[in-house]
């Protein structure tokens, strides 16, 4: 768990995360930024899939969370790269930064 007084991810704030994304069906990793710069985006403005918007909201810097995302909050019936249509996704995320 993050620092109790740490900055909290909230809609409108720019956040930075480290993550590993896997398919729930077989555990195959389809994306990861471990060993690279954090992925940064503004929470609550549609820059990422809905499952991330909901799952990362409220985290504090240093928090780690496993987010399981149904197709309706991921990529639905679309194929995206190696992610098949209607896939359940599992992301292990760590919140590493929160800006204004």
UniProtKB/TrEMBL annotation:
Residues 12-99 form the PPIase FKBP-type domain. The keyword Amino-acid biosynthesis does not apply. Its EC number is 5.2.1.8. InterPro entries: PPIase_dom_sf (IPR046357), PPIase_FKBP_dom (IPR001179). PROSITE patterns: FKBP_PPIASE. GO terms for molecular function: peptidyl-prolyl cis-trans isomerase activity. Signal peptide: none annotated. It catalyses: [protein]-peptidylproline (omega=180) = [protein]-peptidylproline (omega=0). Keywords: Isomerase, Rotamase. It is an enzyme of class 5 (isomerase). This is peptidylprolyl isomerase. It comes from Vigna angularis var. angularis. The lineage of its organism: Eukaryota, Viridiplantae, Streptophyta, Embryophyta, Tracheophyta.
């Amino acid at each position: 768990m993050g620092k109790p007084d740490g900055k909290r991810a909230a809609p409108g704030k720019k956040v930075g995360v480290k993550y590993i994304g896997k398919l729930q069906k077989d555990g195959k990793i389809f994306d990861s930024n471990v060993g690279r710069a954090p992925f940064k985006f503004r929470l609550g403005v549609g820059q990422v899939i809905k499952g991330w918007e909901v799952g990362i909201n409220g985290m504090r810097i240093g928090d780690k969370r496993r987010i399981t995302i149904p197709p309706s909050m991921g990529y639905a019936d679309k194929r995206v790269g190696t992610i098949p249509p209607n896939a359940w996704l599992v992301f292990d995320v760590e919140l590493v930064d929160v800006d204004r």
